[in-house]
Specification:
The termini are far apart. The chain has two domains: 256 residues, no CATH class; 84 residues. The C terminus is likely disordered. Helix 3 packs antiparallel against helix 8, helix 5 packs across helix 10 and helix 6 runs parallel beside helix 12. By secondary structure, the protein is mainly α. Strands 1-2 form a two-stranded antiparallel sheet. Strands 3-4 form a two-stranded antiparallel ribbon.
Length: 472
């Protein structure tokens, strides 16, 4: 078929997916209120402070599924993948409604991945030659049935949960999935018709379109969340389409390309598992140690944190594209930049901490410590500034202000929670302390005067009476 035919299909898929997702997401919000599928801020792990519907995954599901009818007519494996997508979405919706136990949800994912393996979607071999994906190669490493099953199930379940774990900030999972899907779609488009990748390219575009149509309702401040239904569905579709893609049959590098595109969620998931093992906790236990939690604790806010992760995921997408075209040096340079950014996010300010402490640290405590240090520095700087101003004016540099600011600094250093002060707060504290001191002095003077008056008015008391040994 002519390339123009596929370009037309890509445009159709993007338009259909975006429009359907955009129009059906408001319906999902109304349905969420009727079914009481609401995410309430029940613990400090959640970033929102008000109840928000979490059934928006319906818009993503419908948008991408309707658009995926086009590539499904070109490839039978895509139709099989769509069946698994329906089952994975249903599992996520059941979790949104009933709040399934982690082991039940994990077992359901394994069953769906096993079904996909049984229906022919499986990782059976890789190529051992590090050659461009467009070159033919015959040095293949075939897996036995058992190994192929384990690798296929591990890939599908692992990527599904990796994307699910990223759904922690407004617009994060939807935006990163759209970037990853478009990156994989472009890799498929580059190698085009020769490797039979155009249907997979169009299917990836359908997934991205569903995310893009949903984003206007999910970007901060979010009107709705995708819920586990949307997150599990997106993770599954990225994983399953990567397995279907014939690119992995070309070279070992081609097999690594999806891992590069998904490097950020994979890194976040592995980092979370290691962190929980070091803490002697269940690897399924939720916590606040993910990449987006570190960025939030650093004070970037939801929008900037999400955009930073978008940028890193985009860099890894470009790395995958470069490697698929055998531009390894360029890819290595960008890959190093991405790793540098990840290190900046994870590694704390104190360089003497051990690797174990870096992994297990609570980003909130690190942020509180940094704010305490900044506050102490600000208070000490303000104290020195006021002292210098008094010296320049020929006044006594040692005043009560110094003691007040010094006490504020000591109190800030002792506190376990975050203290925020502005210059106006410092001025107010100084004025209040000075007023309290003046009032105390007035009260003391008043009490002394009252005592003197009372003694003067007391009858029968003379100087002789106060002498030692005097008797009445």
């Amino acid at each position: 078929m002519h390339l123009t035919f596929y370009l037309t299909r890509i445009v159709e898929v993007l338009v259909i997916g975006i429009v359907v997702a955009y129009l059906t997401t408001p319906l999902s919000i109304k349905l969420a209120y009727k079914l009481d599928i609401i995410d309430k801020p029940r613990d400090d792990r959640r970033m929102h402070n008000r109840p928000i519907p979490r059934f928006g995954g319906m818009g993503i599901f419908l948008g991408s599924m309707v658009a995926m009818i086009i590539p499904a007519s070109m490839n039978s494996m895509i139709r099989v993948a769509m069946l698994g997508g329906v089952l994975m979405y249903a599992l996520g919706v059941a979790d949104d409604i009933k709040d399934l136990k982690p082991m039940v949800k994990f077992s359901g994912q394994v069953v769906i991945a096993t079904l996909m393996y049984a229906l022919g979607i499986r990782i059976k071999f890789i190529n051992l030659i590090l050659a461009p994906a467009t070159h033919d190669s015959k040095v293949l490493l075939y897996f036995g049935a058992g190994i192929a099953y384990l690798i296929t199930v591990l890939w599908i379940v692992g990527i599904t949960n990796a994307v699910n774990l990223m759904d922690g900030l407004d617009g994060l999972a939807a935006g990163t999935t759209a970037i990853m899907a478009l990156s994989l779609a472009y890799v498929a488009y580059i190698h085009g018709i020769r490797l039979g990748m155009m249907p997979v390219c169009i299917a990836f575009c359908a997934v991205a379109a569903g995310c893009i149509g949903f984003l206007p309702y999910n970007f901060s401040p979010a009107k709705t969340f995708m819920g586990d239904g949307g997150a599990l569905y997106l993770g599954y579709m990225i994983a399953i389409l990567s397995v279907i893609s014939p690119l992995k049959r070309a070279t070992m590098v081609g097999a690594v390309i999806p891992m590069l595109v998904l490097a950020v969620p994979i890194f976040d998931t592995v980092f979370a598992m290691v962190r929980r093992l070091f803490r002697h906790e269940s690897i399924m236990k939720a916590d606040r140690g993910h990449l987006h939690h570190h960025l939030m604790a650093a004070g970037f806010g939801q929008r900037r944190s999400v955009l930073i992760i978008y940028g890193i995921v985009g860099i890894m997408g470009i790395v995958a594209v470069l490697i698929s075209r055998a531009l390894y040096k360029d890819a290595f340079f960008l890959f190093t930049i991405a790793l540098l950014y990840l290190g900046i996010i994870i590694v704390p300010r104190q360089p003497k901490k051990s690797l174990r402490k870096i992994i297990t640290q609570d980003p909130r405590e690190a942020a509180r410590q940094a704010e305490r240090e900044n506050l102490v520095w600000m208070l000490n700087t303000e104290r020195e500034r006021r002292r210098a101003a008094r010296e320049a004016a020929g006044e006594d540099p040692n005043t009560h202000d110094d003691k007040i600011l010094e006490e504020l600094a000591k109190d800030a250093a002792r506190r376990r929670y975050t203290v925020r002060l502005k210059k106006t707060d410092i001025d107010k504290a100084v004025q209040e302390s000075a007023a309290d001191k003046e009032k105390a002095e007035q009260d003391t003077a008043s009490d002394t005067a009252k005592e003197a008056a009372a003694k003067a008015e007391k009858p029968g008391v003379t100087a002789d009476d106060k002498e030692p040994g005097s008797r009445k």
